[in-house]
């Protein structure tokens, strides 16, 4: 039996040695060689396209310009001054606190789209034309034709 164990033990060592010899080192066969280079993109430059300036079409205003605004619920009646943009690109506001203004580049009443009417809420001397605007939900503006357009107030800024 002792011989058998010796022979079996020797056989185990021989088998382990053969497996190690067959497997070889654990490193990959490409170790030590540089990695393959990624494929190169074509070196043709992209064409330069110059944008062609496009002139915005001139749209003629539809409908009459508003000339006044009245809000019976808060006792407001005011002529409307025509407003545009100032030098900084911001919407102008009426110079006098008791006047309302109409943003002329915007839509006219009845033409579709929002018609923008602006005015002050207060001033250094006290309440201004739209001081009580938050107390109502309808205003009426009139142009050079009838009937006047009734609009719902949807937003106010203080």
Overview of the structural elements:
This protein has 158 residues and is of the alpha+beta class. The chain has a domain at 68-146. It contains 1 helix and 8 strands. It has one helix at 2-23; strands spanning 68-71, 76-83, 100-103, 117-119, 122-123, 126-127, 138-142, 149-152. β1 and β2 form a beta hairpin. The longest helix is centred in the first third of the chain and has 22 residues, at 2-23. The N and C termini lie far apart (105 Å). The model is unreliable at 4-9, 11-24, 144-148 and 152-156 (pLDDT under 50).
The chain-level mean pLDDT equals 74
Q: What portion of residues belong to β-strands?
A: 15-25%
Total beta-strand segments: 8
The helix fraction, in percent, is 10-25%
Major sheet: 6 strands, mixed
> Which outline best applies?
elongated
**For the CA atoms, what is the radius of gyration?**
42 Å
Q: Structural class, from secondary structure content?
A: alpha+beta
For the biggest β-sheet, the strand order reads 4-3-2-1-7-8
Number of helices: 1
Give a short summary of the structure:
The chain has 158 residues and is an alpha+beta fold.
Secondary structure: elements and pairs:
Elements: H1 2-23, E1 68-71, E2 76-83, E3 100-103, E4 117-119, E5 122-123, E6 126-127, E7 138-142, E8 149-152
Parallel strand pairs: 2-3
Antiparallel strand pairs: 1-2, 1-7, 3-4, 5-6, 7-8
